[in-house]
Amino acid sequence: MIDAGELKRGITIELDGQLYQVLDYQHIKMGRGSAQVRLKLRDIRAGHTTERSFQASETFKRAFLERRPVQYLYNEGGLYYFMDTKTFEQLPLDKSMLGDTLNYLKDDANLEMLTHQGKPVGIQLPVSVELKVVETGPGFKGDTASAGSKPAKLETGITIKVPFFINNGDTIKVDTRTGEYLERIS
Question: What pTM was estimated for this model as a whole?
Fold first, then answer.
């Protein structure tokens, strides 16, 4: 069991027989009465998000997820196929189970598959990934890193804000937790 005060982003809990990942956590202290905890949760199996409030004194059952090293192979008909790098078994995952991880998924990427009681439930991305810029506006002489930002479409299809000096064809590092630009690689 885990106390409400020990909850943080990324922890997986079991609630009403379902697995939920904590996306956001807020501790709220009312003027009178007891403190509350407001959680933004993502249903791991169904993929939807929900917000719920609990008393700060409540405890939650922590769900333990096993991790298996996998490599992303391809997608076909809404299924994404991963290969276990130890057993070479191919494991399909539905698009809804992957959620926002699709924004950072490249061919041949080495990742970790999360399983609960032997069933795949999702993918754990690294903290940052390197992606190529495929489309962005031109940079102009005198542009600096702190002057502002412009939208850039990356090879996976996601659009993020980048500094003005980033050009088409540049490889950049992106934070997978926030979707923010970190640095230019080349």
Answer: 0.72
